[in-house]
Design a protein that fits this description.
Helices cover 36% and strands 17% of the residues. It is of the alpha/beta class and 507 residues long. The protein folds into two domains: 166 residues, Rossmann fold (3-Layer(aba) Sandwich); 317 residues, pyruvate-formate lyase- activating enzyme. It has a six-stranded mixed sheet. Strand 17, helix 13 and strand 18 form a beta-alpha-beta unit. Helix 9 runs parallel beside helix 10 and helix 13 runs parallel beside helix 14. The protein is globular. The structure holds iron/sulfur cluster. Iron/sulfur cluster binds next to helix 7.
């Protein structure tokens, strides 16, 4: 195959009305595996009146200069993306703070899950934010701008602040998250051998997850769960498989697509007719992993898969609304082994609300049983720590003290070592600062600029707060009756429903 294949028609306009950079806060190869970023770039690119240039952290030259642009948009998917965003702004001599940019600078905006959840830490940096996932918002922003370009930047921002799904920090008002109906299958519109997932056609078949685990932002931020119609998935697969053998099905919970069996049967039939397919699936839910899904994965070259157990004991799994019993999990391991997988990576979280050492002891007993019952099957474990996320029923919960989390990690490392099991652990210290970023407010802006200037290592996160603010206030328990800075972003379920779910699970 050629180096890079573009699966859509790029508009060949000579005099575009609107010129924009879509920026990706990492290297080019990662951008080529980022579905959301590529799709929004494509949507702009297909308009005859918009010229869009994709710019990444390692882009060496651009067609347009900053002063020729109307907009610079950033994709913001991970908490720490702000560091590369600042670096990119610096690289093009753009002041980091919105107040330091006059009308000669383009509008700087951001969108993505981090922003939709809580844009407030970045409110001093960007001119506006796209909240949610609707294509109509992007289109409306461009149209509103075109119709008002004779006005000042401030006047235009004021007008933009009235669009549903747009949040303008300078003109703050409650903003409803925009939600797309997902009436088409979203896929990587470029297939490239330079992509991080080389030559892979990634398609999203499910958005959101109706299981509503109480810590899960991917679920709560994307409700209701939207399933792409089977015919549209098949149509997309036909397009992708014309150009590559590698496909990846994406979604918070792919196994719950109502037509997952039909999708598997379609792929199995293709393979039985001689078509080579290599497939991966982003995430699997332990209680939904059927023999057919495993057979399809194995036939398509998968050796291992990842499933989430989350919490060590059945009690704690109930508390977090992940109602998977040990028996169901054992079944999942059996189905995986009996249908050809060589192993499973098991994902767990430490420090979930109400967790005690007893839950961890239960986990150790359980993994010991699994080891004995499934000799030769490669089970490995990975542990992150709980980070309370906005718009979830656990948004008010405290993050467990770092020392206590490190003690728990130490205990598990020792026990897993004794059992001869592989286990990896996230950094408690970095997860602490991710909590600060998740639940921080607008005061974080100056702090984040300091962190960036001081080298952005752990020491910088620790020392840059001095004299500015006390970041520990974003890590403790929040009063359930207090106003939260992200309340300005209106999502469903509403706050009263989150309070009721919080109380149901924890009291
Ligand atoms: S099953 Fe997975 S994706 Fe769904 S809510 Fe739970 S953790 Fe989130």
């Amino acid at each position: 195959m050629s180096k890079e294949i573009c699966l859509y028609r790029v508009s060949k306009i000579k005099n575009p009305d609107v010129k924009l950079w879509m920026c990706f806060p990492s290297v080019y190869s990662f951008s080529l595996s980022s579905l959301g970023y590529l799709w929004i770039s494509k949507e702009f690119d297909e308009r005859d009146d918009v010229f869009v240039e994709r710019v990444c952290s390692d882009t060496s030259s651009t067609c347009l200069s900053v002063k020729e642009l109307d907009f610079i948009g950033f994709s913001f998917s991970f908490d720490l993306d702000f560091l590369n965003i600042f670096k990119m702004l610096d690289k093009y001599s753009i002041p980091l703070k919105a107040e330091d940019r006059d009308d000669t600078f383009p509008f700087i905006f951001a969108g993505g899950p981090v922003i939709t959840a809580n844009p407030m830490p970045y409110s001093k940096i960007f001119d506006f934010f796209l909240i949610g996932d609707s294509k109509n918002v992007n289109t409306t922003v461009v149209d509103v701008y075109k119709n008002n370009r004779d006005k000042t930047k401030d006047e235009i921002l004021n007008i933009l602040s009235d669009i549903e799904g747009v949040f303008v920090p300078k003109y703050p008002k409650p903003v409803q998250k925009s939600t797309t109906t997902l009436d088409c299958c979203v896929y990587t519109p470029i297939i490239s051998e330079d992509a991080y997932f080389k030559d892979t056609f990634i398609l999203e078949i499910v958005r959101g997850c109706s299981n509503c685990c109480a810590f899960c932002l991917a679920s709560y931020l994307n409700l209701p769960q939207r399933n792409v119609e089977l015919s549209k998935i098949i149509e997309a697969l036909e397009i992708g498989l014309n150009f590559t053998d590698k496909i990846a099905l994406l979604g918070a919970n792919v196994c719950t697509h109502p037509d997952i069996d039909a999708i598997c049967n379609y792929l199995l039939e293709k393979m039985s007719k001689g078509k080579k397919i290599e497939m991966s699936i982003s995430s699997l839910r332990a209680d939904k992993l059927s023999p057919l899904i495993v057979k399809t994965l194995v036939r398509a070259g998968c050796k291992t898969a990842t499933v989430a157990l989350e919490a060590g004991s059945e009690r704690l799994r109930k508390v977090i609304n992940k109602n998977i019993s040990n028996a169901q999990f054992v079944d999942t391991v059996r189905v995986s082994r009996d249908n050809g997988l060589k192993g499973l990576k098991v994902y767990c979280m430490l420090g979930l609300p109400t967790e005690t050492m007893e839950d961890l002891e239960d986990l150790v007993k359980f993994v010991k049983t699994l080891k004995t019952d499934f000799k030769g099957f490669d089970l490995s474990y990975s542990f992150s720590t709980f980070i309370p996320k906005p718009h979830t029923p656990f948004q008010w919960c405290a993050r467990e003290d770092s020392k206590s989390l490190e003690n728990k990690q130490h205990y598990l490392k020792k026990e897993f070592h004794k059992l001869g099991l592989k286990a990896s652990f996230s950094s408690v210290k970095w997860d602490y600062y991710q909590t600060v970023l998740s639940r921080g407010d607008e005061r974080l802006g100056d702090y984040l600029i300091e962190v960036y200037k001081n080298g952005a290592n752990l020491g910088a996160f620790k020392n840059s707060a001095k004299g500015l603010l006390d970041v520990s206030e974003f890590v403790g328990e929040f009063d359930i009756n207090s106003d939260l800075c992200w309340d300005i972003i209106k999502v469903k379920p509403e706050k009263f429903a989150l309070i009721s779910e919080h109380n149901r699970l924890l009291h």
